[in-house]
Amino acid sequence: MPKDNHTYKIHFLPEDKLVDIEEGITVLEAAHKAEVYISSICGGVATCGKCKVVVEEGRVDSPYTPLLAPEEVAKGYVLACQTKALSDLLISVPPETRLEEGQILVTTEAKEARPGMVGGLVPGLEYSHDPLVKKLYIELAPPTMEDSLADYERLRLAIMLREGIKLECLVAELGVLKAMPRLLRESHWRLTATLADWAGTREILGLEPGDTAKNLWGVAVDVGTTTVVAQLLDMASARVIDTEASYNSQMKWGEDYIQRIIYATERPTSGGLDEMQRTIVNDINELISALTLRNGLRPEEIMALCCSGNTAMMHFLLGLDPTLIRKEPYIPTANSIPPLRARELGIDINKKAPLYCLPSVAAYVGGDITGGATAIGLDQQEALCLFIDIGTNGEVVLGNKDWMVCCSASAGPSFEGSGVRHGMRAAPGAIERLKITEDFQLSYKVIGNRNPRGICGSGLLDSISALLCSGAINKSGKFVRGTTPRVRESEEGLEFLLVEGPKSATGGDIVITQADISNLIRSKAAIYAAISTLLEAMHMKATDIQRVYLAGGFGSYLDIHNTITIGMLPEMPPERIHFVGNSSLAGSRLSLLSREAFSNVKEIASKMTYFDLMANPHFMEEFISANFLPHTNPDEFPTVYQELSRGVKAMD
Amino acid sequence: MEIPNIVERWSGEVTEVTLGATKEEGGTRKKIIKLGGANCIPYIDFEGCPGHRPVIAMDVLDIVPEEWPEVLLEPFKEVVSSPREWAKKCVEEYGADLICLKLDSVHPDKGNKSAEEAVKTVQSVLQAVEVPLIIWGCDDPRRDNEVMPRVSQAATGERCLLASATQDNYKTLAALCLADGHNLVTQAPVDVNIQKQVNILVTDTGFPVDRIVMFQTTGALGYGIEYVYSIQERERLAALSGDKWLALPILCNVGYESWRAKEAKARDEEAPGWGLARERGPLWETITAVTLLQSGADILRMLHPKAVKAVKKQIEALYTNNA
């Protein structure tokens, strides 16, 4: 048979994007090529069923999958990752598969600080306002026959006196020296120097005539597995000017980073890692571009960038090989990254501007945690604190000013809205709070006050708690038939109707399924098991914990009480628990604005003791024990058990 | 020099569960069985009270067993088609403390018999013997949920032990046992946490905790016995430490599991050099039973009369030979 390579045109709606593909390419791959976002958790191996699209016109080769309901198949639904074109195609991407544009909620409420200080996320926590990149207005005495110091030495001496640093710690590039004599004289010896902290030395990045010390901008970024958040900072006044967030476009290669590492390492020749790096750099560039445009700045005016993220994300950002992170004994290329020129990575800001990365502790505890710990001042607390950052991985830190231990549990992305039928991130249209009354009436609050499109982390947490308290699920998280008509049969077993079609934004019912609940319970069990394992390792009890700081992308609100009811956190007085929002971003911002905070982050990274849960025999035991609502040991949740038993017949 | 007293005292005690009801109690049993009561590690009886003696329940099937090796079938060959006679023989001739009636015939693959027939079988066995009864479903959740309500009702007041409630299917059985005055077996897949979870779920339906017997799907000698052993040992230690959700008697399915082992069932010609099948099979069952006794088993479901005899002797020795 002669080789006959067809190419087909694929037309994606509603984005109206066209792409030519060769025969044998899947619709999902075509969408990547066309830069059309299609939700996919499993990375294209037909296990998640998220990449549903509708074939409007054309012929396809699409094998049978139990992930599609018969009525969906009748409407032309296929899984994009399993479907290949046999002709030109018109594909429409339904709302549930699309990534809706829109602001992702950002919560990083910095506390008020005194003048000359910048505030952390807890009251009274301050770091001195001393940015990693700063501007100094300098007035120099012109040289005379008696004072014949060279130009550079004259400038260095002035900086040395102002900053209290040693002369040999000050460096500059050739270009700065070349431009200096003329600039000094034309500016009449009144000029502004931009100075960057460069791992122990300071570099003169540039000189400007006159006083421009007030014009200095930097960007702090939280490079999350799911969400990337960038914040524009006025470095001179330590003010947050604006914040912008977007989804991490790497999601198309899998929603957890292990999937992405596999993708990158399985394609060494076709540049899987480069692709991954370009994608995240592109996301950051777009955020910076949006921030600068909206605030009347040019990207070249951004003089500093600071990024925090988990170890794998930092590897992707820098283009470092992440392969060994997922293989025993789990060794990252680097935990502490020296400052780099952001331009080297293709980040589109001033060509001299440095990029600072917050240091990691280990392969599974990254700069988002060391930064977060700095933002809550964990290392300054007398009291025993627990710091938890709930994301795709749930990282847990236990400690105070004297010691810190940490670990990371694979919690899964369900509290970020992934792996849940109608889950979504905390964006407009997401149900963020939910209550169920005794007669199974629902009340809920939707972000942006509109018809709901799905449900985000805080809403899901409320749902589990409400379903448990109402008796619609038992302590195993299994639906109880006959409690309410809202518990109903579906193709995949029982489900609970949250919002009827006419009241939703998509027109379809919003439900929570048995599988969703199992995923959420597994997530909370992983967090609780990580906490128990750390406590056990330190021979401590939950009652010893005096403060809990809970961080994560749940949204702007989190019902603390429900975190205990479902057994995600140990039972304790709720006033001990504080929701701090995005602490990774706060860590990044504080570092950029305060060299003191940045060195604090580095110190925390070197102080934290890492516990590997994978090698820990107790973890699995604790996990199974926590895989129950609230927990298998009633002694650990006496109050919750008491509250729940009120709805249960008394034991005789 | 005085030797210090190092006797360990425990705070917890295994809950006492009663099987069978006499006429005065609303049943027709002449013999009742009490389980539990231990407040020390099994057979470390100088530290406390070892509780009630373990008992042996002999299995009676309501179908003619097809896959049993000859050695196992031989002692029952005249009675295998009559559960009534079979049960009688187990009690009168082989000394069974109680009978475990296994309702295999209602299973869709094993005859799919009706609930009426199961009820008749249960009634005939109840009439034939005076010992308490374990009534074990066919382990097909759908059929069990249809048949067990009828069976349970037919045995109302007899304080039988009904089996088995799992994490995914416990409501019907728990409700029946509550309504008809029976005890309940809760089952877990060799996992102490899940065992506890099932017990909590069952009591959440209002079922009293002192009518539960726990069952960790048994593994025979050479087939995971060490896992089951350590799980049961942990349950007992938890019980003694005051965990009321695990302070319950333990049941082991020794006979069925032992005779699945090829070492037990292989014929002489299949395994020359392994010893004679008529010794080997019962020995396999005996060793499995005696091992699990040490972990704190309270009810042993057994099959071969020779093994039953040997294990009874062992129990007797454990409880008398303290010199």
Structure notes:
Chain A folds into 4 domains: 86 residues, Beta-grasp domain (Ubiquitin-like (UB roll)); 78 residues, Ubiquitin-like (UB roll); 141 residues, 2-Layer Sandwich (Nucleotidyltransferase, domain 5); 171 residues, Nucleotidyltransferase, domain 5 (2-Layer Sandwich), CATH 3.30.420. In chain A, the strands form 8 sheets. In chain A, strands 16-15-14-17-19-18 form a 6-stranded mixed sheet, with helices on both faces. In chain A, helix 8 packs across helix 13. Chain A is α/β, with parallel strands linked by helices. Chain A contains 15 helices and 31 strands. Chain B is an alpha/beta fold. Chain B has a single domain, classed as TIM Barrel (Alpha-Beta Barrel), CATH 3.20.20.20. Chain B is built from 11 helices and 10 strands. In chain B, strands 3-4-5-6-7-8-9-10 form an 8-stranded parallel beta barrel, surrounded by 7 helices. Chain B has a two-stranded antiparallel ribbon with strand order 1-2. In chain B, helix 6 links the parallel strand 7 and strand 8. Chain B is globular and about 70 Å long. At the A-B interface, helix 14 of A face helix 6 of B.
Structural class of chain B: alpha/beta
Principal-axis shape of chain A: globular
Helix content of chain B: 25-40%
- Report strand order across the widest sheet of chain B: 3-4-5-6-7-8-9-10
- Kindly report how far apart the N and C termini of chain B lie: 24 Å
Give the second-level CATH assignment, the architecture of the largest domain in chain A. Answer: 2-Layer Sandwich
Provide the CATH top-level class of chain B. Alpha Beta
